[in-house]
Amino acid sequence: MDIDKELFLWSVIADRRDLALLFWSRAKNKISAALIATLLYKKHARNEKDSSYKKSADEFENLAVQILDKFYQADSQTCTKAIIRRIPAWGNVTWLDLAIAADAKQFIARRAVQDLLNNIWFGYIDQRTSHKKIIFSTLMIWYSGFLLYNKELVQSIDKAVFLDEQTKKLNSTENQTSDNKWIVYKKRPGLYQYLINITRFMHTPYIKYLYNLYFHMIFLLLFSYLILCDFLPLYGFPIDICTSAKDSKDRKDNVADKNDNQPSINTSLIGNRYNASTSGSYESQRRKRPSGIEFVLVIWIFTLVCEEIRQLFATEAQSKRNAIIAYFKVFWNKLDVLAVVLFFIGFTLRFIPTVECFCAARVVLSIDLTVWFMRTLDLFAAVKRLGPKLVMIGEMVNDLRFFMIMLIVFILAFGVSSYSLIHGIQKLSWHLLRDIINHAYWRIFGDLNTLETFSTNYKANGYAAFILLVGYMAVVSILLVNLLIAMFSNTFTNLQVDTDRIWKFQQYTLVCEYLSRPSLPPPLIIFSHVWRLTLCIAAKYFKLNFFQEQYRRHLNRTDYKISLDEKKSIAIELAEDTFGDDVYYDFLKIGSKSLDETELDEERA
């Protein structure tokens, strides 16, 4: 039993901060211990609503960050590998696992962790390869075999000076070994190596991201074409039954104008031909079954459903219920479920032989297309210039939500009163609410056309409506709009420093998502699911060594954690202890200096 470790955990749980720092300085695996303390203190802060716990959590996170920075400066390669090293003393977790669990954004944002995430994101592809070549290789797969590849996932050009000294102290001359297939592979010349390069290229998370981006754009184009040009009724009612009466009238007027411009010779013959062509054109717009694009989209979204189910079952949780809760905590997962449900509702409604259901199907699918376009924003999270902006947009939406509550109050206060003064008694209907909102809302943006309805009304109701309009425009257009701008500016200022840190923290989720995704994007992803299902059935029921080995490799393909030999692990722990002692002594010096300054100020007072 590690006495210092147990006493350290007791001190943290009992909120004995000074003792926790003392036992932390005596314990091994200081970064792991500091991150665990950060996790526990943050949980205390959430439960107790006490800012002192948050302060203690920040202190331990800063200690872990300082050790990490010193380690990275001394030996970047070993430090990067140490981040994903399994630590038996703490249940085979890694520094990265603990940092994510503790929500240690400052730790994740450090260069050492970001280098590791970049290594995983680009896989074996040499990061010196230009993005143009990589994008070209995604379009021309054969070219990917000629790109530059690293021999290791964690690649560094720095020399391991400090760790070599620690290793020499242990008389260790053994090379690092790992049970992870990501780390080392032997170079094979010729055609076989070319095929291996293409395989590694296709399994790279960045390449998976690009293919998902390409196919998502194609999906949006097909869906947009369906809604705009190809969503035709299956039964005997007019094509434009769902459009407004004004649009239908305009179309008829256009047809009439074209007929008026035709020559008057052989009008009966031309009329018969026109009627025949019109009838033929009209009948050609009818279908007995949905178009091919609709079936393609159905298959496409079905493959997306399969992928979402795979992600749900792949969620690490103690029970299925917790897995479902964790799945729906992610905003984009909620959006995916909503988009899928809306699509199948709309696709089902179009088969019901009523005009109302066909129009409802068009409405539902149009809203669904909007959701799929919004889903594109998640793909922009990988772009360094756009990702932080999405973080700001998310925070500003919270400001807008509370602002809209105040705005609705003023809209209804002015809209109901002024509408009743101008239009008098109205018949109760759902359209009345829309008319009131139209009457009040668009005035915020300068639409004053309805002002003409009472501009010459010099009666009491006209003056009352005029006074209400003046007050409404002063409060909403001047006060509330500028208040919203001030709220956005304040949010932007507060987040400007932390936005990059938050985005880097979210990069971990993005990397893990595409690391676990199959190589093929939807709808081709169905082949990956069939292959995985085949391996699972063959390994479980036939129990052949070949299938069991292939299935084991398939499951471990996303495992980036490594296990080092004992001597190498001891060398890392010695280096960690050395840097930890330096950081702890610096921390004590700063603490004693601030204490002396406080006592001096009290004496002067």
Give a description of the structure.
- Residues 250-285 are annotated as: Disordered.
- GO terms for molecular function: ligand-gated calcium channel activity.
- Residues 5-109 form the TRPM-like domain.
- The protein is mostly helical and 605 residues long.
- It has 4 domains: 3-121 and 579-604, no CATH class; 208-376, no CATH class; 387-516, no CATH class; 525-558, no CATH class.
- It has 24 helices and no strands.
- Helix 5 packs across helix 8 (111-122), helix 8 crosses helix 21 (460-516) and helix 15 (292-314) runs antiparallel to helix 17.
- Residues 156-162, 172-189, 258-284 and 594-605 have low confidence and may be disordered.
Question: What tags apply to this protein structure?
Answer:
single chain; 605 residues; mainly alpha; 4 domains; disordered C terminus; transmembrane helix; TRPM-like; Ion_trans_dom; membrane
Beta-strand percentage range: under 5%
Put simply, the count of helices is: 24
Overall outline? globular
Number of strands: 0
* Unreliable parts: 156-162, 172-189, 258-284, 594-605
Estimated structural class: mainly alpha
Mean pLDDT over the full residue set: 80
